Every structure is written in structure tokens, then in C-alpha cells.
């Protein structure tokens, strides 16, 4: 498999992907996705399962319409063998914690994420 350019470290890929969750411009969000996600990226959480950029981008836009200024903040990041376990907090536009969760992500040889399995519903702790 040919990889275009140097492969970013998993932590860097994750950080860029996390920024996509607060990006309100769909075109810029898709630009982030093209740098961090495989085209067949699978996102799943207790509410939805998506494949590819478009459905995930639409899902993020729906959340942003309900939670203006929403952003995800990593509170813990562990990795091994191109797999990461991320603890995060969802914040509103005023930086108030709304929820906490964990995500297990997997990166492939291209240096892009291929899947993210998300678990949340934990109340945010002050």
C-alpha cells in the first residue's frame, strides 16, 4: 500500500479529528476528515452508526444545532498498536461540561482512522 506523505502519529490524528467536532463549516470539517479518516471510516455510538464522511458530518451538524459551541475535550489518551482509548468531555459553548465518555479508535497503515467506537451517557462531573 502506498502512503501519501509521512504518516502522522496516532495522537496527532486524534487531535485533528477531535477538532472536526467543533468545526461548524461542513467543507472545512470534511477537509479535516480527508486528512484524518479513511473513506470507509465507521463511527458508532449508542444512538447512531455511520460509514464515511458525509453521514458523520451530518450527525455532527445536528449535534451542533442543538448544542451551539459544542466541543470535545480529551481528558486521557492511551495507545498501543495503532489503537487508542480516549476519555473525553463534551462541553457547550460556555465550556460547561455536558457529558463524559470513552472512545476506542483504530488507525490503519495509511495513517488514518478506520473506526471509532464511542460510549457515553455518563453525567459530567463538575
Overall, the morphology is: globular
- Just give the CATH class: Alpha Beta
DSSP summary, beta strand count: 6
List the uncertain runs. none
* Number of spatially distinct domains: 1
How can the largest sheet be summarized? 6 strands, mixed
Overall structural class, as computed from helix and strand content, comes to alpha+beta
Give the terminus-to-terminus CA distance: 46 Å
Mean pLDDT, nearest integer?
91
CATH architecture grouping: Roll
What is the CA-atom radius of gyration, in angstroms? 14 Å
Task: Describe this structure as you would to a colleague.
The chain is of the alpha+beta class and 126 residues long. The protein has one domain (10-123): Nuclear Transport Factor 2, Chain: A, CATH 3.10.450. The chain is built from three helices and six strands; from the N terminus they run ααββαββββ. The protein has a six-stranded mixed sheet. Strand 3 (71-80) and strand 4 (83-91) form a beta hairpin. The model has no long low-confidence stretch (mean pLDDT 91).
Provide keyphrases for this structure.
Nuclear Transport Factor 2, Chain: A, 3 helices, alpha+beta, 29% helix, single chain, six-stranded mixed beta sheet, 126 residues
How would the blueprint of this fold be written?
Elements: H1 10-20, H2 26-36, E1 37-44, E2 49-51, H3 53-66, E3 71-80, E4 83-91, E5 97-107, E6 113-123
Parallel strand pairs: 1-6
Antiparallel strand pairs: 1-2, 3-4, 4-5, 5-6
Helix pairs in contact: 1-2, 2-3
Amino acid at each position: 500500500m502506498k502512503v501519501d506523505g509521512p504518516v502522522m502519529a496516532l495522537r496527532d490524528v486524534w487531535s485533528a479529528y477531535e477538532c472536526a467536532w467543533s468545526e461548524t463549516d461542513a467543507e472545512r470539517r470534511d477537509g479535516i476528515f480527508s486528512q484524518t479518516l479513511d473513506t470507509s471510516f465507521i463511527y458508532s455510538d449508542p444512538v447512531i452508526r455511520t460509514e464515511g464522511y458525509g453521514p458523520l458530518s451530518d450527525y455532527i451538524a445536528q449535534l451542533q444545532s442543538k448544542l451551539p459551541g459544542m466541543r470535545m475535550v480529551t481528558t486521557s489518551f492511551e495507545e498501543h498498536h495503532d489503537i487508542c482509548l480516549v476519555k473525553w468531555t463534551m462541553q457547550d459553548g460556555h465550556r460547561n461540561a455536558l457529558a463524559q465518555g470513552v472512545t476506542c479508535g483504530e488507525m490503519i497503515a495509511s495513517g488514518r482512522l478506520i473506526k471509532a467506537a464511542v460510549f457515553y451517557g455518563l453525567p459530567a462531573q463538575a
